[in-house]
Design brief:
Blueprint: H1 2-36, H2 40-56, H3 62-77, H4 83-103, H5 108-120, H6 128-145, H7 150-161, H8 171-187, H9 200-210
Helix pairs in contact: 1-2, 2-3, 3-4, 3-5, 4-5, 5-6, 5-7, 6-7, 7-8, 8-9
Length: 211
Amino acid sequence: MKNLIILVAILLASTLSTFAGNYEETMGKTIAQLYQTQNREELLALGNTFDRIAQKESTQWLPYYYAAYSNLSVLFFAHDLSVAEKTEVLNNAQMELDKALRLNEKESEIYVLQAFIYSMRITDPSMGRKYSGLSNEALAKAQLLNPENPRYYYLKGTNLFHTPAEYGGGMDAAKPLFEKAAELFSKTTQKNTLMPIWGNQHNSIMLQQCN
């Protein structure tokens, strides 16, 4: 009996190790596809894939995070969506991000993405005050949790860039933030290859516009 228990323990450990390896591999491949595609249908399909991974890996926040980011990315490439369609996409992204937040309330990246979702909800000036305030609150949490997160400075700069100068925004206000983001992007080393890396390329574009 003792030998049988040991054998079962060894087999279980082997199975869990293989499953964990499959998780890393599957996530890595799916994340790579996410960063490469600009197609609406493919992005939605990738969001569903991440959601399925999350359901199997119930303690992992990253699959839900990327499911949210996949949905949000639809808005970067589908410019013909109606306000109602954009709202639906954002609602789906929010639903996924809420799940990630329940699993990890102290992750800076989640709050940056939350701020991004709030910013994208500003589809007309009447929504600016509400969602700008919410976006800034989320960014403040992101910075508090990780002052060295380059995506915080990139998104804060983007928000300021699109804020009228009379309200404290504009190119001059945004430029130092894009410069700080560029500095941090250049120093970032990926200890966990599954962690987010987005923002660097667009930050460079925004900095060029400020110059």
